[in-house]
Amino acid sequence: MVMTHPDSKTLVAIYEKMALIKHSDDRVIGAMKAGRMVMPYYSARGQECIPAAISVQLTDEDYLVTIYRGVHDMLAKGLPPKLLWAELAGKVTGSCKGKGGPMHLTYPSKGCMVTTGIVGASMPIACGLGLASQLRGETRVTVANFGDGASNIGAFHESLNLAAVWKLPVIFVCQNNQYAEHTAYATGTSAAKISDRAASYGIPGVHVDGNDPLAIYNAAQQAIARARAGEGPTLIEAKTFRFNGHLIGDAGEYIPKAIYAEAVKNDPYPRYRSWLVEHQHASEVQLDGIDAAIKSLIDEAEAFAMSSAAPDAIEVKRDVYATEIA
Amino acid sequence: MSETQAELSPAAAKAPAKVNMIQALNWALDDAMSADRNVIVFGEEIADPEGGGIVKISQGLSTKYGSRVRSTPISEMGFMGAAVGAAVVGFKPVVEIMLMNFVAVCMDQITNHAAKLRFMSGGQTHVPMVIRTMTGSGFQNGGQHSDFLEAWFCHTPGIKVVMPSNPADGYGLLRAAIDDPDPVIFIEHLNNYWTPGEAPERGKLIPLGKARIHRPGKDVTVIGYSRSMLDIPPVAEKLAKDGIDCEVIDLRTVQPMDMETILTSVKKTGRAVIVHEACRSFGVGAELSSRIHEALFKELKAPVERVASEDSPVPYAPPLEQAFLYTHAELEAAIRKTMA
């Protein structure tokens, strides 16, 4: 693969999205540990550069579908932090009026179409979004996120096959964090690489270091160009790690200590920050400024969430059908 | 979308007086696709090169509408999810699940996604799609090709359930289901496909959630839908000769259920019998019986009766298949029991 080197502005934009995801995640976990928030929260800490490096190449028109571990995908695509935090807190001011929570984040005006709590279910829906663009003759693309475990469920096979035979403009992004809930990759997955499975559908399969924004950027650039040109889907496997277990409260006893230590050593956030400074794409001062601005944005988001009202009980009857039925 | 005569296909002008369900549903799909570019149709073998569907309901549509009508791989989970995705961004997909039992392999997309996205997104998205499917015993299709599973969907808030009994209703209800902003499962009965009935009025929609009084009467309210509407009328006519005057109601839409029409009738008759092909326990009959008892307990002259199939898988051997389904004699006995 010929590597494109994005300009400094783009590289810093990727950092900005990564910082937003990381700082928001740190703060959510802090709020949970302090007892200010209670929820089933699936942290994506460690995976932030995947959506960051992809989303800088997408527009608000492009569609995104993700899964329960998808807060990072949604933030990178443009879900406003205030609406995220209010939704996590179960408030009526949340993006879904407090009716969806962390597993069902939705914000169509930025293309954040569906978040599913069902492993693998993002992929068939992505095919439908891609079909819609294709039938309308649009150039917009759909990004479908899922994990390594989801590549073993039937929806993966059906979706990649359908997208291939219909040449749908979908980019299937497998964020391989090496654990399907508590099950290690090799215990449940027969293929050496998930990207190898693309060959059986006759579509490109690309394996990249999911902690390397440049590698992800390049793989996504080609996949997006291919989709926009009507040439069909691509499977990207981005190998990464999740630092906070399956969900908060999972102590991760099933992860060997040496593997965990090695993964933390490869934490993409400090690694990318140092790289940007070292290669003079940004100064420490500039990045400190970005971090400070994001932290104050999250201060505002948390304050907004905490001070917002809970949904009224009547909401349980609303949005079940277009018009309430007896 | 306006429904002018000009938008209808030329066939409308010379429609025969009697047609069957297959013709009526084909017209409904054709007219809906012609009226609204967002209507798309897909399913297994439904395009013309693959035969236009196993009973040819979609025959001619792919030739007329091109890529808006597609045969899919045998991937119910894949294409059901694709319908959900397309519906979320404004298409009105009509997907065909060849036989109702096959919904079992794509229930996740139906119950966890189509039914719930409106609610879980706080109303930001919704899923205006129709799932058309067919089923029914009596064809020796055995335990995995014959079930009536409407109760599964009635028990899933967010979905509507439509079950027509005749061609004219089939046309009007399918058009309304396609126009509806919520996901609708539209269940057809194999037994009803070839029975001629009144031709539909092309372009006329029948609102969902409205039952139809098939036969007015004063003694017993007999409520059916889908296939049971082939069985109830002859029994009602037979009983009329013995002086039992049945009021026969065709639910047409099972969820939402037209309680106003049902309760008005039962208030008048004081008696009710519910008839469906689905197995008896935990079914639509149980729900409807409960609602009638809750609303009219003191006015009932007899407990509400249910006539339904055995609580068993649908068998293969013809004598067993007959033993599975209710008989006209059982239906007659249930009605007479309420009069005793």
In short:
The complex is a heterodimer of chains A (326) and B (340). Chain A is an alpha/beta fold.
Characterization of the model:
The complex is a heterodimer of chains A (326) and B (340). Chain A is an alpha/beta fold and 326 residues long. Chain A has one domain (8-317): Thiamin diphosphate (ThDP)-binding fold, Pyr/PP domains (Rossmann fold, 3-Layer(aba) Sandwich), CATH 3.40.50. Chain A is built from 11 helices and 8 strands. In chain A, the strands form 2 sheets. In chain A, strands 2-1-3-4-8-7 form a 6-stranded parallel beta sheet, with helices on both faces. A two-stranded antiparallel sheet of chain A has the order 5-6. In chain A, helix 1 (8-33) crosses helix 2 and helix 1 crosses helix 3 (71-77). In chain A, 53% of the residues are buried. By secondary structure, chain B is an alpha/beta fold. Helices cover 35% and strands 19% of the residues of chain B. Chain B contains 12 helices and 14 strands. Chain B has helices spanning 21-35, 61-65, 76-88, 107-114, 117-120, 150-154, 167-179, 228-241, 259-269, 284-296, 318-324, 328-339, and strands at 18-19, 39-43, 69-71, 92-97, 130-135, 160-162, 184-189, 197-198, 212-215, 220-224, 246-250, 253-255, 272-279, 305-309. In chain B, strand 13, helix 10 (284-296) and strand 14 (305-309) form a beta-alpha-beta unit. In chain B, helix 1 runs parallel beside helix 7 (167-179). The longest helix of chain B is centred in the N-terminal third of the chain and has 15 residues, at 21-35. Chain B is globular. The N and C termini of chain B lie far apart (52 Å). Mean pLDDT of chain B is 95; it is low at 1-8. Chains A and B meet through strand 2, helix 5 and helix 6 of A and helix 3, helix 4 and helix 5 of B.
